[in-house]
Amino acid sequence: MENINIIRKMFRESVRMRIALTAGICAVLAAGALFLYFHSPFQHPIPCVFYLMTGLYCPGCGAGRACYFILHGEFLKAFGYNPLMVIVLPFIGLYIVARGIDWTVTGGNHVDGKISAKFLLTVLVVILIYGVLRNIPAFPFTLLAPGGITAVLG
Fold this sequence. Notes:
By secondary structure, this protein is mainly alpha-helical. The chain has helices spanning 2-13, 15-38, 49-54, 63-71, 75-81, 83-106, 117-133, 148-153.
């Protein structure tokens, strides 16, 4: 436990340490994006444990294929595999960037306190409702299943 406190103190006091860690995290994320860019999720799909266990789509099903298409600039195809993720992803990215810059520069967290609990609860409810609706086996809900909109648009 003492070692963890020493590490926390180093990061709290050293901007260089925070910059190095942030750069390392960015490098890992870039490597992941590069891997996904060249790794076709159609040839080697990443299985969804929830889908394998229940036969139901989770709110994240189709996200790997959607991210693959986003990286290739095909936003309509990405939308076809996980519409909610494509809509929410820019906001998640903005949050991560703002939070990362805040922590790197100040060593603190000045972002989370500005997000209301009601907003976060609303987002959670929307995600849960989306997860339910995409499993209803009737039109138009089938459009929310991975590839549903893509099948209609061709």
